[in-house]
Amino acid sequence: MTHTDPAAVPDAETTAMLRALDLAGRGVRGANPLVGAVILDEQQRVIGAGYHQGAGTPHAEIAALADARTQRADLSGCTLVCTLEPCSHAGRTGPCTEAIVAAGITRVVFSAHDDHGPAAGGAGWLRTHGVDTVGGLLAAEAQLLNHRWRAATSSRRPFITLKTAQTLDGRVAAADGASQWITGPESRSDGHSIRRRADAVLVGTGTVLADDPRLSARHADGSTAVRQPLRVAMGLRAVPDDAAIRTGNFVHLATRDPLEAVKHLYDDGVGHLMIEGGPTIASAFLAAGLVDELFIYQAPLLLGAGTPAIHSLGIGSLQDASRWVLDPRGGAALSQCGSDVRLHLSPVVAADGRTDPASTQSSHRTITSSKGPSTCSQE
Description:
Blueprint: H1 11-24, E1 36-40, E2 46-51, H2 60-69, E3 79-84, H3 96-103, E4 107-112, H4 122-128, E5 132-135, H5 139-145, H6 147-154, E6 159-166, E7 171-173, H7 185-197, E8 200-204, H8 205-211, E9 230-234, E10 250-253, H9 258-267, E11 272-275, H10 279-287, E12 293-298, E13 307-308, E14 324-326, E15 334-337, E16 340-347, E17 374-375
Parallel strand pairs: 3-4, 4-5, 6-11, 6-12, 8-9, 8-11, 9-10, 15-17
Antiparallel strand pairs: 1-2, 1-3, 7-13, 12-16, 14-16, 15-16
Helix pairs in contact: 3-4
């Protein structure tokens, strides 16, 4: 059985799936989907729960199994409820399907099928190993949870995060070109927490020449993180041999085409790309409809002139505006970082699950210019 009518499963499993969906939303977006899992005992009582907390960390099923084992060592006869079909391949972590069978789980109820390459097929593997497996419970909710991640992987490109730091009137630099620092140390520290989980960080060659950024991932105390993203410069201008960006794992993409850039990075194994370039780069990726989430760090400053955060997107009327919604998944949608405010947004999604046509521009745009109430935790 590969799909199930919600009425055909016990109420306890539906309730557990709702909890798993809530847990999944606590995870962080990036190279992996948001996934939550709950373990029920033979009496349909919750004895364990977990969610995936980012690339390289235990999958939701493994976290839930570990949590359940704090209550009982033998999980024989228990049910695992998860928001995504368990994987059957070994990546940074082992196959969840094998761990489920080894634990003695006899029933698995999942929401969305995993059709992502080598991770697919877990349900079939479980059934051939004697596990009663059903799928499709609250599938629409699970699909919406990972809508942009699925859009990225189906297009064979990375999940893309765009980060911008700006004033109240949307400026990223003053009239004299000064931009360091518009936002405060708390915002910069929070931005580094995104860098630490990204596979690559991209800026334009204009930003490299103007600011000479390192693009390294650091902790709040200034120490260098163990895991460092690939540092990417995009544009036709040469990157100086002594540029700070070259001190780490570095690549220069000599193109002004965002689609060409992301295809190259995806083929090189980049699953999560963070865009930190100036307005030219940001606008090109936005106009191409390639941004999956947006972090805006807004400082309580007014300049009245200077460089705008976003250049023209080719939008001529209000009805065609690029529309975004506050996204609470992975933390607060609206939070305070010192004296700044951080907004976490995702593109508007229509009722049918598709991205609202008004939220992304279908035109294939290339770069034509090279210029360029929670509190944030300081990780």
